[in-house]
Every structure is written in C-alpha cells, then in structure tokens.
Amino acid sequence: MLKKNKSQIRQAVKALEAQVDKTVKNELPLKIQHNLLNSKEWKEAELVGLYMPLADEAQTNLLFKSALAMKKVILLPRCIEIYLEDKVLGKTLRSIEFVPCHSLDELSTQKFGILEPLPTLKALTPGEGIFTPKTKKTLFIIPGRAFDLNGGRLGRGAGYYDTYLSNPLLKEVFLVGYGFSFSVYPALPLEPHDIKMNALCTDKEFICFKS
C-alpha cells in the first residue's frame, strides 16, 4: 500500500471530520479540554500558550477560563511575516508571535478570520521578561490537522508554528499537540523542519512522549 503524502492526509482527515455525528463532534472538544486540564503538565505550567480556534479546530474556551482562574500568564498567537534579506532575492517567512492577554476583549478578527491579539498589544520575545522557559514552566498547545504517536504533527502547510518553534530559546517549552482522536496516525511523513511535540492531547487521552 502506498503511503499518503501530507496533502492526502489533510484531505483524509477532512473527510473523516465530515463523517462525525454533529452531537458527538460537539462533545469531543469538552473531552479534549478536560484531558488537558487534568494533566500534571497543565497544572504545573506558569505560562500557557493557547490559540483561538478556527471552525474545524478543537475549542479552547475552558482552557482560557481555567488559566485565568489559576492566574497563569496567557499567551496568544498573532500571525506575522518576516522578510529575510538574501544576496539574490528576498524571502518572506510566515511565523507567529505570542502576546500576553488577560481578556477576550483584547482580541479582534484578523487574517483568515482568526481571533488574534489587537495589533496595539506588544508581543513577547522568547527570553524577554516573564517569557523565560528555562526558569518558568511554559506549556504551549499546538493545533494541527494530524498527529502521530511519535510526537509528529502536521499543520495546514503554511509553516507558521514550525518557523516560530524552531527558535532555540524555545526548546524548554513543553509542546502539546492538541486535536481530535480521528486525526491521529501511527506515523506521519515528516521533514527535518517539522517540530515534534512533547505530548498529545485528544478526546481519548493525554500521552507524553519520551524525550
């Protein structure tokens, strides 16, 4: 049997998602969030990187409320483009930056219809101020179209998260792949630039991978 490439896996997951009963699909995000909230990694984290979901991504509303109640520092992503100078031609990289947020009122709809921190809010640079993963336990939940049982993650193909997470200053951040169990594969076709997760949280389980 021929192995599926990344594009085929994204299409397969989309097809599986369309087959999930609406009532069941509404229950799955609650199960995913409860599995994360009950984990030791969530409870011990001082800084948490969340995200505001698109329609086909797992919800995070309970995580946001819990983080506020537990007085964790909440960081939310904002899409950016980085222009790199090159001797022959310039290259634009898609990436993200994380911004401290205390309320949903600090968000507005931006590119792709995603709720993001207001443009006026200052992003934190890794290693700056409170954003010091070496001294403060930091956990990021990372959305994806598919995951595997070895820490592999498949995003939408634009590279926003992989570009950002390649920063060496972020190697101490605990990365949790966050999605539906029907999107989990035994193994994904990964490339060198694909960042691996430290754990996976789905509607069925929370599992940590060996480092």
Topology:
Blueprint: H1 6-19, H2 22-37, H3 40-44, E1 47-49, H4 61-69, E2 73-84, E3 91-100, E4 107-109, E5 115-117, E6 138-143, E7 146-148, E8 153-154, H5 160-165, E9 174-178, E10 184-185, E11 199-201, E12 206-208
Parallel strand pairs: 1-2, 1-6, 6-9, 7-10, 9-11
Antiparallel strand pairs: 2-3, 4-5, 7-8, 11-12
What is the compact description of this entry?
This is 5-formyltetrahydrofolate cyclo-ligase. One of its GO terms (biological process) is tetrahydrofolate interconversion. This protein has 211 residues and is α/β, with parallel strands linked by helices.
How is this structure best described in words?
ATP binds at residues 6-10, 153-161. This is 5-formyltetrahydrofolate cyclo-ligase. GO terms for molecular function: 5-formyltetrahydrofolate cyclo-ligase activity; ATP binding; metal ion binding. Helix content is 24%, strand content 26%. The longest helix has 16 residues, at 22-37. It has one domain (24-208): NagB/RpiA/CoA transferase-like (Rossmann fold). A hairpin with a 5-residue loop joins strand 4 and strand 5. The strands form 3 sheets. The protein has a 7-stranded mixed beta sheet with strand order 3-2-1-6-9-11-12. It has 211 residues and is an alpha/beta fold.
